[in-house]
What we know:
Number of domains: 2
Helix content: 40-55%
Largest sheet: 8 strands, mixed
Strand content: 15-25%
Number of strands: 12
Number of helices: 13
CATH architecture of the largest domain: 3-Layer(aba) Sandwich
Shape: elongated
Amino acid sequence: MIGMVYREEADIALGLFTMTPERATAVDFTDHVSINYARIVAARGSPEVTLWGFLQPLTTNVWIGILAALVVYMLVMVMPSCIPDKTLTRSRLMRSSFHCVRVLLQQDVDEGSSWWWWERVVLGVWMLMTLVLTRSYSGNLMALLSVRLIPEPFQALEDLLEHPVQIITVKGTAEEQAFRTATSGIKQRIWNLRKENRIMRFGAAKLDVMLAILLKEKSAMITLDVYLKKIMASEFTKTGRCVYSLGNMRYIPAVEAMAGRKDSPLVPALGRKIVQMTQSGFYDYWQKKFFPNLTSCLNAPTKFAITTPLAIRNIWGMFLLLVGGWIASFLVLFVEICFPITLQGCNLNEDHISF
């Protein structure tokens, strides 16, 4: 439409166009109607609990740290017992080895009168650490089982760099031009993803294709939020669900106005009417009138409280782990019964194991 105005085939382009320096050289713009920003939109995640949800309260590094601390504690409690006469009693070996595991599993510990003071100190520190860990774990696990979160990983442009997703842009728009002409910063890094075939460009007429890709593939789209809000409102009106999520960060402010011929007297006259329309609130009223539920999905909740009973499909990973432990223990029992091992240099009939 701007091209038709520039070629003097039309006097006024009745629509909202982003004001850019290139367009300003060809046409005149009225007073602005609205100011919008480019934002990221992606498919809204699912609040389903994963199979291994009972492992989520602690990160991988924490699990590794717990196992490492457990091994170190067992070595600290067992190894000094060999110092006096290089002889380790079986009862002391079992007591020292299993006390740390019993504390970790929140079981009782029998206090022996023969304990050295350093053993009591080490055990006390271990009990304090495991108390904090187990309480934190149980609290986080209860929160994960009772409150489910909907993941929204794409809140900023940096998230698009960290996740291997396809990025959708609309050809010929001012926001795409801002990425294409960037010479440094995050916008240039995003546009350089074309070398990895992670940028998909579509014309504005292929909106349905872009939305289908958003819902079916792991992708995100960058465009003006005014169009995204209308898309989300239309989908909510049809289905009653919020299937898209908007990122929090805003980029590339876009001032939108109508366009007319250069030096046309219609442009300032129309601009005065636009000012009256926006100041009186007519524009916002018309948007809500023609696009119901325009704000229904803008602040959609990302947390859901679960009031239904806990289903086996949400925790069967724990039962799978239990069955795996049983199978492993039976295999070890079978090996011990069928293939007895005689330790060379050790007398197992006495109360002492001599090395």
